[in-house]
Every structure is written in structure tokens, then in C-alpha cells.
Amino acid sequence: MIAARALLLSLFVVMVSSASGWAAGVKAKAEVSCAATAKPLEYDCAIKLSDARSGAALTGVEVTVGADMPSMPMAHNVKPVKATPGSEPGTYRAQIKLEMHGDWAVKVDLAGPVRDRIVKSMRFEPKP
Amino acid sequence: MDDHLTGILSNIGVISFVALSAYLLLLTGEISFGQQAFFAIGAYTAGIVTAMWQLPFWLGLGAGAAAGGAAALFVGLPTLRLHGLQFAIATLAFAEAVRILFELFRYQVVRAGEPVGPNGIEGFRNIRYIFEHDVSATQFMLIIYGLLGMTLFGFFLLERSRLGVAFRMIGQDGLLAAAQGVPVFRVKLMAACLAGAIAGLGGGLYAHLTTYVEPAIFDVMLGVHSLAYGLIGGLGTAFGPLLGVVIDIGLLESTRWFAGYRMIVFGGLVAVLLIVRPRGLLDERLVHRIRRLVSRRPPPAPTNAAVLGEEPS
């Protein structure tokens, strides 16, 4: 019973903290394009981030790219990789390794000054 | 905590809801291939409540669970009079119908200059509650596990109630249960509604965890897995399906030991376990043995006669 009480108390603390709400942050927009590399199932992804409202490029953001197969949610997760900033403002690059070809939901997670997640549905085919 | 680990733990927590939902019906002896439909209904409902109507998160989760339960009642009324294979096929047909309906479902509103809401096959994106309200990944994981703990506590109470006994009686032999005065259809309907609500709650959490849902997520694969979790983990306790999820998502998926061959290993595991342990790892017999071990009382204190070395007469 003590464990149950502790659980309820911790949940209440989280509920209160999450319900209080902070100011809504920037809503990000991303353009993602991935190209097959020489290695099988490895894809080089170029990401262009901007503010969805103002259209300004988002710089200095910590970007992580992962992927999930919609046909089997929560399985076939690709371990997220950190993206590196490109030469132009708001551009980032990341190399992801998939388990198989097919339809994937690419997840672009932003941390740092902007916290957001953008999900893009993409089809990954073998290199022709 | 590492973000990847938080993500895996959150996934394990969320999928546990749909596994528990299938487990609840397995207790009554019914195999459902359609619990993913209630998960989907809960996900879309909760998303609509928070992202489109801008109502609080807890209301969204509650609405998701209620919608899941109501949909289960709607399906249960005509189908729960069926048994075995017919019921399994009926649930599968319903789940596929729901998935296709979501492919056709378009309902969007404009929020901050952008359309938000379900958009057919494209899915429902921008369920951004956790980002708009700055809920961290760890906080959200705690919310998932808090609700999972509450659900497990509910199962703990259920197992000790007359209703829980009725579930297992029907699961063992419906005809015998009816002869004992158990209102079989009503009890089964109650189990189906509870199972639908649990799956709906899980769906609401899932939509907010991933920030997007699409009909492809809710195909039969998810239903088969949720059913398999209970069958692997065991039907003796609600921890059984959780063990199944941990084995699949936590061990096979996350460690990458069987990368690319996971489904073969998982399928093989289900097949072997169904032969060796038909009621899963934590089956009723093992759970009973563990309970006896835990609750074993210390031997009674020796009597005065025994202490004095006297032979009992």
C-alpha cells in the first residue's frame, strides 16, 4: 500500500507540474530528404529547419533523427542519431541506418532553444 | 536519463496498455485480434480533444478511454454471443473496418494558421501538447508509468473481487459458470468495455508520445502482438503481458541482438511457448506457487510440552 501511495503522490506531482504549463514555444517546420548511400540500408538525410510561423531558419538547435515503422509501432525503431549543422543556416545532416526498406516515419527531434518534433512519412527504396 | 532509453521505456509502458487490454479478454477465454481498434479510437479521440479543441490533456485521455470503452460496448453487444474462432474473426473484421474508416476520416480545423486534425491516410499530425506545455520526455514517461501502475492496481483489486473470479470462471468453462449463476454475457460485456477503455487510454498516451498517428499504425500486426504478449508472459497475473512486452520491445527490439530477424525469433518464441507452456511463462500454477512462497507463515511456536522434551500423549 505504501508503494501505491508513493506512486499516486509522484503521479500527482507530475500532473500538477505538467498542468501548470509554460509558454508555448516556437513551432518548427522541417523539409527532409534522404538519399541512399553506398552502404546498404544507410541513408544520408538532409534537413532544413525553419520557424513554421515566421519562416526564419532555425539555427543552434540540437537535432536528433530517428525512424519508426508505422506498420509495427514501437518496434523496428532506429536508434536516433545526432545531426550535424550544414553550411547554410537551418540546414542539418544525419546518416541513419534502417533495418529494412519500406515505409518509415522519420522523426526529427529538436532540443535546445527550440523543443519540438516533426514526423515525416517517407518511403525508402534500395539504391537503383 | 538517456533519451533513447526514455523512449524505449515509454514505448514499453504504452504498449503494455494494449497488451493488458487483450489479456483481460483472454481471462474470459476470448481471443481478440481487434484491440488495436480501441487503441486507435483512443488515440484519435485524445488527439482531437487536445490538439483541435485545445482542451486539457487529462480530459483528452479520459475521452480516449471513454471512447474506447463505448466502442467496445458497441462491438461487444453483437459479437460477444459468438465464441472462439467466430469471435476472433469478428474482432479482426471490426478492427480492419475501423482502420479503413480512419483512412477516410477527414476533420481539420485551423490552429495558428495551419490545418490540424485527422487527414485520411496522411494521418493526424501535430498532436503537440507535450511540446506546447513543455512536458519533458521523462515527465511524460512518469505519467505513462503512473497510469500503468494505477491500471495494474486495478487488476490487483479485480483479481481479488467476485468479478475477477467470474472472469476466470467464464474463461475456464462458460457453460459451467452460467450453471453457477454467473450472468455470462453481461460479465463478458463488462470485460470487453474495460478492455476497450484500457486500450483507449493507451492510445491517448501513444498519440501524445509520438505526436502523430496514422491508420497504418493500427493494422492487425499490433493486434497479434498485443495478444501474443499475454500468451508469452503468462495468463496467471497482469504482470504476464507486461513480461511479454519487456521480452519483445525491451529485449528483442532494443538490444538489436536479432536485428532484422526479430520477427522470426518472436514468432518462434510464441510457437515454442504455446507448446511448452500453453498459458505462458507466468501461468496460474507458477503464480499460485509464488503467492504461497511469499505468504508462507512461519512455523508455529513450540508448545511448552515440546520445549520440556515431553512426548505428546
What's this model, at a glance?
The complex is a heterodimer of chains A (128) and B (313). Chain A is mainly beta.
Question: What features would you describe in this structure?
Answer:
Chain A is mainly β and 128 residues long. Chain A is built from one helix and eight strands, in the order αββββββββ. Chain A has one helix at residues 2-20; strands at residues 28-36, 42-51, 62-68, 78-82, 84-85, 91-97, 102-111, 116-124. Chain A is globular, with a radius of gyration of 18 Å. In chain B, a hairpin with a 2-residue loop joins strand 1 (109-111) and strand 2 (114-116). The radius of gyration of chain B is 22 Å and the shape is globular. Chain B is built from 14 helices and two strands, in the order ααααββαααααααααα. With 313 residues, chain B is mainly alpha-helical. The termini of chain B are far apart. Helices cover 70% and strands 2% of the residues of chain B. Chain B has helices at residues 3-27, 35-52, 57-79, 84-104, 129-132, 137-159, 162-172, 174-179, 184-210, 220-233, 239-255, 262-276, 284-294, 304-307, and strands spanning 109-111, 114-116. The chains are: A mainly beta (128), B mainly alpha (313).
Keywords:
heterodimer, A: 128 residues, mainly beta, Immunoglobulin-like, four-stranded antiparallel sheet, 1 helix, 46% strand, B: 313 residues, mainly alpha, two-stranded antiparallel ribbon
Cα Rg of chain A:
18 Å
Please, what is the CATH homologous superfamily of chain A? Macroglobulin (MG2) domain
**Number of DSSP strands of chain B?**
2
Please report the number of helical segments of chain B: 14
Which helices and strands appear, and what pairs or packs with what?
The complex is a heterodimer of chains A (128) and B (313).
Chain A: H1 2-20, E1 28-36, E2 42-51, E3 62-68, E4 78-82, E5 84-85, E6 91-97, E7 102-111, E8 116-124
Antiparallel strand pairs in A: 1-2, 2-6, 3-4, 3-7, 5-6, 7-8
Chain B: H1 3-27, H2 35-52, H3 57-79, H4 84-104, E1 109-111, E2 114-116, H5 129-132, H6 137-159, H7 162-172, H8 174-179, H9 184-210, H10 220-233, H11 239-255, H12 262-276, H13 284-294, H14 304-307
Antiparallel strand pairs in B: 1-2
